[in-house]
Amino acid sequence: ARLSVRDALRVQSPSGERVTVQGWVRSVRSQKEVLFLHVNDGSSLESLQIVADSNLESRELDFGCSVEIQGQLVKSPYKRQNVELKAEKIEVVGTCDPKDFPLKYKDRPPLEYLRQFPHLRCRTNALGSILRVRSEATAAVHSFFKDNGFVHIHTPIITSNDCEGAGELFQVEPSSKIKVPEENFFDVPAFLTVSGQLHLEVMSGAFTQVFTFGPTFRAENSQSRRHLSEFYMVEAEISFVESLQDIMQVMEGLFKSVTAMVLASCPEDVALCHKFIAPGQKDRLEHMLKNNFLTISYTEAVEILKQASQNFTFTPTWGVDLYTEHEKYLVEHCGNIPVFVINYPLSLKPFYMRDNEDGPQHTVAAVDLLVPGVGELFGGSLREERYHFLEQRLARSGLTKAYQWYLDLRRFGSVPHGGFGMGFERYLQCILGIDNIKDVIPFPRFTHSCIL
Ligand code: 4AD
Ligand code: MG
């Protein structure tokens, strides 16, 4: 039978079962009469130990090559593992010259070095673990929403709206080889989506609780450690909410449930990151999980920052957006517990956020969740569900014509509703302690970089 390394390692009391295992060689060690190999196929962090008679050794058998091995599963005499494969036949499927291969045996190369090899770095322990965690976290996000009665919606990638109104759009056009009858393929300018929110709002007006989880795109000219041009966003939208707190509860629940599921489903992979990439992160994460998230208002945040102005290159005053350095300070100030910052100035936020109608310091019912190590992880709000308020906001932004359909939603059975978006890569950075966002996505896209 063909077995994955993971399944082979899970055999409790091996008794000579004949199996075939395939994978890539992680180490070759030959002693007088015995040859030891470690083979990994990505199904687990751990590699399978292969023990063979020296006469099965060939010149082609080297670090990095791909192999197919037939043999018998037996109990291992070594303490570290339960099972090993006693090889009867070793076939090198594809050779690998270690002289030219950029990954080296026994190395723990820094993530920054590995970034040069997006086509090979997935064969290291570090990227293997990070990407398996990413896969488990993806499944956990879907479970969380399914368990809580949300309907999954495929929101479009190509859209004509700029949800966030920030103008950070990638425009979509057919390649110049394609003959288009009119000026625009879609008649209107079309873009890669920056957020599925507006489409989710449509759907929450029918399914009550909806979510989407897909790629989003922003042409931010930024070389930061937490921005990508293409990133994945988890977005939810909920109808009949009573307050911003209803939304915040789902945000905290999502963070804590998904993390608990990931810790349960791939503990070894998480442990590898916590041990070798981000020492101390295990305790920091436990601290986040066992405490209730805190809440402060934007106004309180600005007061806290003013008191600490000596720490910043720029100190915000009321009405100004917070920078990464401010977000990081606020999280530390709150004892490294995630903190919701609510009620931002209306002037800073997009047209769709609900007016708090609160006098001279005019705010909207917006919420950002700031987390240790990363800063902003979630952005969300109550949406303006009142027709006349929304009509005025759209008019002020010159968007009335394009958003007639959006206004319609406020004419035909409008309800108080709200939602949020969580940057999925930032979430992975936060739980694993990974400093650079480029290391938690298989193929990062950012300014001047779209190889592969
Ligand atoms: O705060 P943002 O812009 O919120 C929205 O787009 C809302 N329409 C979401 C909603 O309410 N449905 O983005 C949400 C999150 C941010 O908090 C951040 O974690 C992440 O998306 N994000 C990015 N992640 C990586 N690279 C970028 N360039 C990002 N821009 C935002
Ligand atoms: Mg935001």
From TrEMBL:
It comes from the Eukaryota. The keyword Nucleotide-binding applies. PROSITE patterns: AA_TRNA_LIGASE_II (PS50862). InterPro entries: Aa-tRNA-synt_II, aa-tRNA-synth_II, aa-tRNA-synth_II/BPL/LPL, Asn-tRNA-ligase, Asp/Asn-tRNA-synth_IIb, NA-bd_OB-fold, NA-bd_OB_tRNA. Coiled coil: none annotated. Keywords: Aminoacyl-tRNA synthetase, ATP-binding, Ligase, Nucleotide-binding, Protein biosynthesis. Its EC number is 6.1.1.22. Residues 131-442 form the Aminoacyl-transfer RNA synthetases class-II family profile domain. Belongs to the class-II aminoacyl-tRNA synthetase family. This is asparagine--tRNA ligase.
